[in-house]
Design goal:
Strand order of the largest sheet: 1-7-6-5-4-3-2
Distance between the termini: 31 Å
Shape: globular
Helix content: 10-25%
Order of helices and strands: EHHEEEEEEHEE
Number of strands: 9
Largest sheet: 7 strands, antiparallel
Structural class: alpha+beta
Length: 187
């Protein structure tokens, strides 16, 4: 099974980087390839299920994943429970990087789910996933650096729903609360 590993060192403290990583609802606001993320279920602070729609090299991939969040370790593991790929598992993690920075990691193991074409398509999919993961990490880094430059000490305010959101938006992107329901969205 192919593996994609992308690590990015950024000049923000681990607690700030972790707050951005675990705030998956804000991903569509700062990541061009992420069309939507919704929390489908959240049993407690450690367990949630999310539904994703992501553009990858001109194709839209949709899946639902179960996530196990470890706040102490600053890591969340995910596993596709339904969706477009045969298998899709991995984790996001944040580690301290001296002197005051962080290393943000996204590691993914996947299988496209088409055995006869896997040998040909898995390397292409791995390259596309690697590129997309690098873009996602770069977008997180940019959001954090923008917040730092703006001097926003409360960049990640606790929302009434229990989710955290940075409140920052890229030009032309709507907040999750402003989006049309999927049935009305233009694809």
């Amino acid at each position: 099974m192919p593996r994609v590993e992308v690590d990015l060192r950024i000049a923000v403290p681990p607690e700030d980087a972790w707050a951005a990583v675990v705030d998956v609802l804000s991903y569509p606001d700062c990541m061009e390839s992420v069309d939507s993320v919704e929390i489908v279920d959240q049993r407690d602070e450690r367990h949630r299920t999310t539904a994703w729609s992501v553009r990858l090299k001109g194709s839209v991939l949709r899946w639902t994943e179960a996530e196990l969040i470890d706040q102490q370790a600053r890591r969340f593991d995910f596993e596709q429970v339904s969706g477009d790929l045969g298998e899709f598992t991995g984790h996001w993690a944040v580690r301290p990087a001296p002197p005051n920075g962080s290393t943000v990691s996204l590691h993914v193991d996947f299988d496209i789910g088409i055995p006869l074409l896997a040998e040909m398509l898995n390397p292409v999919a791995a390259d596309a996933l690697r590129e997309s993961a690098a873009q996602m990490l770069a977008a997180l880094e940019q959001r954090l650096l923008d917040q730092r430059q703006a001097g926003d000490p409360e960049a990640f305010e606790q929302q009434p729903s229990g989710r955290q959101s940075s409140g920052l938006r890229l030009p032309g992107r709507q907040s999750l609360d402003q989006r049309l329901p999927d049935s009305q969205a233009v694809r």
